[in-house]
What we know:
Elements: E1 3-8, H1 12-23, E2 28-34, H2 37-47, E3 51-55, H3 63-73, E4 82-87, H4 95-101, E5 105-108, H5 113-124, H6 132-144, H7 159-164, H8 169-179, H9 184-191, H10 195-209, H11 214-223
Parallel strand pairs: 1-2, 1-3, 3-4, 4-5
Helix pairs in contact: 2-3, 3-4, 6-11, 8-10, 8-11, 9-10
Amino acid sequence: MTIRVLLADDQEMVRDALRAVIGRRPDFEVVGTAADGAEAVALAVALRPDVVVMDVRMPGTNGVEATGRLHAEWPHPGPPPRVLVLTTFDLDEYVHAALRAGAGGFLLKNSPPDQLAHAIRVVAGGEAMLAPSVTQRLIGTFTALPAGLLPGAAPPPGHAERRVGALTARELEVLVLLARGRSNLQIGEELGLSQATVKSRVNRILTRLGVENRVQAALLAHEAGLLRPGPDAPR
């Protein structure tokens, strides 16, 4: 099945490069390009792509705001397009807010073409595109940010604890492993479950927590204090 992709970046050279990389893949179709977040939202509503590859730092409406608007203002039946955030990571603290806003994952701008293609496929399939080591670093950095750095992003006290409190003991086990960056296969191996069962439980966890994706679920797990320091804990 062809994955329809919208590209959003304020640099024309980057847009052209992304189009060249993605356009030559037989399972991708670039349906449009946008130079800022407002244009990305308008084109996404008009063209209804499967995935929006979204730069974080753009003039006017940035990638964080555009991602939030896609989820809050989507006018069509069904969910909005999946968003894959492009970032320099070490410099873009706002990527954390984009993930909170509903982005399905993020990728470094200097990632090789094959990794970009893989990320788009993963995000289009509803999974979060975060390697375990990157998940750990992302969440570790997020939890170290000052509370006031991202306006409107900090939940009220006890918010995370109340949400994870609705899960069963088995679901909490799955959530902790998910938050440590484990894949469905790895979670199944550690808990003695099939991949199909893990996938079903993960989907149920996302629904019960009221989150869009695994990244947001992992952030909730950290905010609720479910993880204890260990060899694979975020650093």
